Amino acid sequence: MGLELYLNLLSQPCRAVYIFAKKNNIAFEFKFIDLSTGQQFSEEFGKVNALRLVPAIKDGDFTLGESVAILKYLACKYQAPDHWYPADLQKRARVDEYLAWQHATIRYQGSRIFMFRSLLPALTGKPIPKDRMDEALEDLRKSIQIFEDKFLQDKPYIAGEKVSLADLVALVELMQPLSTGIDPLEGRPKLIEWRERVKGDVGKELFDEAHEKMMKSKDFANALDLNSPTVQQLAQKLQKKYK
Amino acid sequence: MGLELYLDLLSQPCRAVYIFAKKNNIVFEFKFIDLLAGQQFSEEFGKVNALRLVPAIKDGDFTLGESVAILKYLAFKYQAPDHWYPADLQKRARVDEYLAWQHTTIRYQAARIFKFRSLLPALTGKPIPKDRMDEALEDLRKSIQIFEDKFLQDKPLSTGFDPLEGRPKLIEWRERVKGDVGKELFDEAHEKVMKNKEFLKALDRNSPTMQKLAQKQQKIYK
Fold first, then answer.
1. d(CA A75, CA A165)
2. What ipTM, to 2 d.p.?
């Protein structure tokens, strides 16, 4: 049994893992975890990731969660080209620095825009109040400003001259608000150029394929059964997490 | 000019960097950044870390923030014993997995207990409402349960509240890790935070710096 990737491409970190694996011709079996039916709570998936989160991988007997850990594992094991996770100590540190910082900032705030504009209204039947929406947009805006000023600066990529895991992880997160009709990079030509550059590096076809489901997320949100206990439980969890 | 570590030992990630560097006999200059005096906003520190966060390091011309990135950098550069960040792919992945997961869970939730029980009441003069406090304690409790069940499994505390109380396995783990880094070093690193009541009493709540701090903290730790 080879490498298995447990994924749902609605999820940003799943897309990073998917794109990275495909771009680097890593052979794997795609194991779809349907978050809208609560498949992450199945007994089978519990053996892969007790945290009940995607992405997760199973490589023989070895299981692993957390996209940042998975990406590094795959990069090392399958000997991806050095630029993805450079051996040079200082370049690597720049990648690590972004990957650490982004958890509580871009990751959380980009997700919150998606939750506030798409998923939560679909789940609850109610829009998010304007003041909370404005605050969420402002928080994301501030983090994107930091991304531009401190992490990218005038370099083509976060680590310098070449694309790395940091750019991939950043970009999939910044794509999430797009599915709700908002471009978080609007008015920022330098970041829009960076986005096109990274898309080109992974391959536009692969990138678009990975984002297809997310871009059509309105369809899937409308198809949810609001009365199912699973969906209601999901709504509660998300409302708590994305205040 | 050698390695400089910009730290305030009130901060958990600062303590991790400090303990790791001292334990591994890494030579450094301790550059104190007094968070409660707003020193992180100084022009000088801005050149070290534009994010205005500690810990941060300066190694020649190279600057770096984020404790997880710093710890890995130091482990490699100073060739710390393998067990700190194993070369074995799967063991390393287990370390990476915890380091990634903890940012938005244990790190945030334990910090929130400190803010809710100590810092915010000192800054605002008001206690945190019981329902928010209970929610914060419950969130931390859930994460500690996950830590025990998933991360530690069967393999081997400032505000007067011990989050590991009633969990003998985790208490044993805590003692084990303390022993590995060295009890004296560990206690030294934690001295400031354990005495936080004293210096929090001395805060000038009315100063603009402290008021700004209170606002920021209240927004982060809802």
1. 9
2. 0.93
